[in-house]
Design goal:
Layout (H helix, E strand, L loop, with lengths): L4 H9 L7 H8 L9 H22 L4 H14 L11 H4 L1
Helix pairs in contact: 1-2, 1-4, 2-3
């Protein structure tokens, strides 16, 4: 049900690819602080509901999940720390 949600959130935040989706939601919520205050917790829950609604709406479009993963992969390749290593032919055998 939430397949692709984390990747979709990473694209929205445009940083912090190593976080779980709950942490990404907290970063996307207005007034994010740690630890959460009651007000910040409320904002995080409201943000979660809004983001889930947007994600599910986006998922209804054809080929949307494939697009999320393709866009996420493209995003990764633009990061200076990302290196896709390929094995040389002599390393394969």
């Amino acid at each position: 049900m939430l397949t692709g949600f984390r990747e979709w959130l990473i694209l929205r935040l445009d940083r912090d690819h190593n976080l779980t989706w709950p942490a990404l939601v907290r970063h996307l919520a207005p007034g994010w602080i740690h630890p959460l205050t009651p007000q910040a917790d409320t904002e995080a829950v409201i943000t979660l509901h809004r983001l889930l609604a947007e994600f599910f709406d986006a998922r209804e479009q054809s080929d949307s999940l494939a697009r999320v993963f393709r866009d996420h992969r493209s995003w990764l390749t633009t990061r200076p720390w990302y290196q896709l290593e390929t094995a040389s032919p002599d390393q394969i055998n």
